TrEMBL record:
The keyword Hydrolase applies. It comes from the Bacteria. GO terms for molecular function: endonuclease activity. This is ATP-dependent endonuclease of OLD family.
Amino acid sequence: MIESLYLDEENFNSYCLYDGSRVLSKFSKVNIFIGSNNSGKSRFTRAFFSKNNELKFTLNKFDLQILNKLLEDLKSEITDFYDEYIIGDYGGILNILTTIEKIDFITEYFNINDIVLKGIYDVKNIKYSSYNTKKYITQGDIESKVQSIAVKYINEIQDKFSHLAKVRLDNIYFPTLRGLRKIYGTDDDLYLKTTKKDYFKLEDDALDNKIYTGVSLYEDLKKLLLGTKQERDRVREFEDFLSKNFFEGKDINVVPRINKEVVYVRIGDRDHSIYDLGDGIQSIIILTYPLFFYQGKKRYIFIEEPEHYLHPGFQRIFLETILHERFSNFQYFITTHSNHFLDITLDVDKVSVYTFKENEKIEGEPRFTIENVENEDSNILDIIGVRNSSVFLSNCTIWVEGITDRIYLRKYLDILQSEEDKQFKEDIHYSFVEYGGGNITHWSFLKDKDGNHPNIEVKRLCGKLFLISDKDGAGFKKNGSPGSKMERHKELKDTLRDRYYCLEAREMENIISSPILKKVIEDYEGDNTAKLKFNKNFSTKDHFKDSYLGTYIEKNIPDLSRKYAAESGTVNDKVNFAKRAVSFMQSENDLSEEAITLGKKLLDFIKDNNS
């Protein structure tokens, strides 16, 4: 994957980073470019896509620091040898060494043999016409020593970087002008022609196979279905994807009808013209079918505003799709105005977010600033003009104390409904709301503490809700008497009834199963795992449900290599701890009894509000 990009004067003269530097770094699997209109993000994306043979960049698998260290070591070994023996003519060796320069960036078709090894081969093959020495040494000895040094570094560089003999940037671009219907009265892809005319070189036919507008779907399907078994299997995988995510598991066939030159989708036992599908599904088809057809190949994919026609739930499906391991060879660069994309990226790794802002013009030409930001930065919402009214509501909401609760519950729901005929989708059928623990007292399902400052009316914000709270020591004070938390639990139960669940455990982390907890610890410990001796209480059912989990881990496992308890006693790395835990949960057998009970209650609640 591309790791950083140099903003050269020729192609990116109008851009710089907020600190004035010209190296855009920290690219991830998915890179989101966000900004207001006329902020320069689309212009940047098109240059990034189309100027691939002129770009200067680094790759995450090509560690230039290691390469440059090898080059410096090579020079040092040879000059140290010369300093020890040679005092006169260097045989031209110094001139050759100056040609072996530090490499800050590479370009497309970068060839390690031509760019790096050529100079070292020149060193290896050098012949000496005359020389002087401090100590006696023959010309043959000098040549032999220099050759052995050169060969050592040639072998090491080839071993580490031979797979980069030739770097290529194979790109795909999805413009905003896209659709599955040809313009009436022509067989040409006018979306493609218009995109090329407006933004690229119209005569550059090489772009035709790199710009996807959706119009080529009919011809693409024909070629694949008449091709090899592997190509036909890709179509089958695409059909399975549509079936699972949009048609409730019904059998789907996507077929190009030759007599009508139109793609038809067979859903169950009925045929539909692809034009008869909803605009959102058509948009998803345009954005995803090339991914299935190119899977297994390395591609850099540029997408302009994928949120067009997509419900927030479909946006989630799209993001989850492009992050799927079957597309591990793809890297994405996406322009968007969608705050939903930002919200979704909070739950996943491998995403970087960049804001674009227009600065004052210089001699009439606009200037733009790019900044790599955290995706939870609320200032981004101001940049794209998000208001509360921009957010659409799901049919029901699940209220949780924080992000880790959301991570666990999402996994429980995924596992428990994996065998269901109908799959309920987050942000379509239900959404999570984080209320932040003690802030629950601000909402209208609890009585007002102060009549002059009434609680927030929850019904104005969302539909039916299910609320979950931690047990937090059952709400007792240290002397054993009921505290305010216990009174709050009772009031919530009286108000929400079956739509309220108080954990039997102290916190959400405490309802993971013992085997999963053990796997998380072993994953954190790595090579140190062999030294660990788990206390016999560790695997006892529910033994840690009322304990502060971080403290429990440290008390029950000697010889740990790291600290697990926060000052409060809970785990000190809650978000990453949760992500590790759910990564080991594959089936219902991995869940504790309470996790299953709670998950099923939530699933029933979602079903009731989506029937």
